[in-house]
Each structure stands twice: as structure tokens, then as C-alpha cells.
Amino acid sequence: MSNHPSKHLSRAPLFRDAFELCEWLLGHFGDDDRVLAHSICSRALSLLEAITLALKDRAREEQIDTADELLIGLRLRVRLAAQLGYVSENQAVHALERTDTIGNQLGGWLRSLGPV
User: Fold this and answer.
1) What is the C-alpha separation between 85 and 79, in angstroms, rounded?
2) Is the pLDDT of residue 4 over 90?
3) What is the predicted pLDDT for the residue at 22?
């Protein structure tokens, strides 16, 4: 896909899933001036950056840990956004399913690296 920063990264399912989640969240919250919406967008962009850096072998384990922490916070914010009516229940389920997919991939990647 020509919109992605790198052909190598665009083939990585984790990158693709994180990119698509970030794109979806920015599409829903990017023009919203509320604090929670801004926090969701910021966290999603930071998550995508941490995953990208890990895939590029830049402090890989540290970036994976950072991505996992960012993902936990993102899930919390999406749930809160749904509770406050910023997104519908279906939209929240969609976003949370995507975060679960990303979380499973991050967990698998961490396990593949062996004991720390």
C-alpha cells in the first residue's frame, strides 16, 4: 500500500492492524476538542510509533513494552468514550476488538523473544 511509510512495515500484520486502528480512531476523534478525544488520538499515535520503532529494531523490547502499556491505556479510554456517549456501543466493540488483536500480537511477539 503506497500510503504506508514502508513496504516492509506494511506487510507486518501488527503494523497494519495498529495503523488501521489509529486511522479509525483519528477519523472518529481527530476533530473533537474534548480532552478524552485528544488523549485517545495522542495515545493511538504513540502506540503506532512504538510498534513502528520496534519493527525497525529500535530498542525492540522496550518499544514492545511501551506499546503494551499504551494499548492498556487506549482500551481504558475507548471504554470511557463509549460510556460517555462519544461513540456507539458497536463502534466501541469494533475498536476494542482491534485492540485485542493488537494485544495478542504484542504478547506473542514478547513471548517469542524469550525470558528477559
Assistant:
1) 10
2) no
3) 97
The amino acid at residue 17 is: D
- Reported as a single tens digit per residue, the pLDDT across 53-87 is 999 999 999 999 999 999 999 999 999 999 999 99
Q: Which domains does the chain have, with CATH numbers?
A: 19-110 (1.20.1440)
DSSP H helical segments within 1-116, as ranges? 7-11, 13-29, 35-55, 60-83, 89-112
Amino acid letter, residue 110: L
What pTM value is reported for the model? 0.87
pLDDT the model gives residue 115: 75
Q: How far is CA 69 from CA 11, 32, 33, 75, in A?
A: 24, 24, 24, 10
Residues 76 and 92: beta-carbon distance below 8 Å: no
Coil, helix or strand at residue 54: helix
Angle at 10 between CA 44 and CA 78, to 5 degrees: 20
